[in-house]
């Protein structure tokens, strides 16, 4: 992979069920099991789907007018499937966006449906990856055989 395409985060355990995710730019976010205010991994998945689309839509529409309201609700159902595995279904990203009255607001309102479709069909890496499905490899590092290693 080239530097242009490679993405990564590092996750460090801080205590049982609590972790900090860090990106290469120095940003960090707590994550956990949902027993405190930290985001759970499923909530982060929902946030990633909504956030990716929100960025696309915002960049396209705000060129025309600054929104007076811009919010995104992302929902889904966590289920156990027939194979006994956990997964999400019924994922829904709902935008509530308003623009000021006037010609610029009219242009932004007109661009909104197209920007939502463009994000879904080709721009949002996160939702496209989820929809298309991408294999995930879970591997152990170092000398230990198998999917994980104890140190």
- How can the largest sheet be summarized? 3 strands, antiparallel
Rg over CA atoms, rounded to whole Å, is 19 Å
Order of SSEs, N→C? EEEHEEHH
* C-alpha geometry: elongated
Question: Could you tell me the number of beta strands?
Answer: 5
- Helicity, as a percent range: 25-40%
The helix tally amounts to: 3
Distance between the termini: 29 Å
Low-confidence stretches: none
Beta-strand share of residues: 25-35%
| Strand line-up across the major sheet | 1-2-3
Structural class: alpha+beta
Estimate the mean pLDDT confidence: 93
Verbal overview:
By secondary structure, the protein is an alpha+beta fold. The protein is 33% helix and 28% strand. The protein is built from three helices and five strands, in the order βββαββαα. It has helices at residues 41-61, 103-123, 125-132; strands spanning 9-15, 18-23, 28-32, 69-80, 86-98. The chain has a three-stranded antiparallel β-sheet, with no helix packed on it. A two-stranded antiparallel sheet has the order 4-5. Strand 2 (18-23) and strand 3 (28-32) form a beta hairpin. The longest helix is centred in the middle third of the chain and has 21 residues, at 41-61.
Quick rundown:
The protein has 151 residues and is α+β, with helices and mostly antiparallel strands. It has three helices and five strands. The model has no long low-confidence stretch (mean pLDDT 93).
């Amino acid at each position: 992979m080239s530097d242009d395409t490679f993405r990564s985060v590092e996750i460090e355990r801080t205590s049982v069920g609590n972790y900090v995710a860090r990106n290469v730019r120095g940003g960090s976010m707590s994550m956990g099991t949902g027993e405190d205010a930290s985001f759970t991994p499923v909530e982060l998945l929902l946030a990633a789907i909504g956030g990716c689309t929100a960025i696309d839509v915002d960049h396209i529409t705000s060129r025309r007018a600054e929104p007076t309201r811009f919010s995104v609700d992302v929902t889904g159902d966590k289920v156990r499937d027939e194979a006994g595995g956990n997964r999400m279904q019924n994922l829904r990203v709902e935008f509530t966006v308003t623009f000021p009255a006037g010609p610029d607001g009219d242009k932004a309102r007109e661009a909104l449906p197209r920007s939502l479709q463009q994000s879904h069909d080709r721009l949002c890496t996160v939702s496209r990856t989820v929809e298309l499905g991408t294999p995930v490899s879970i591997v152990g590092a170092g000398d230990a055989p198998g999917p994980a290693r104890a140190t």
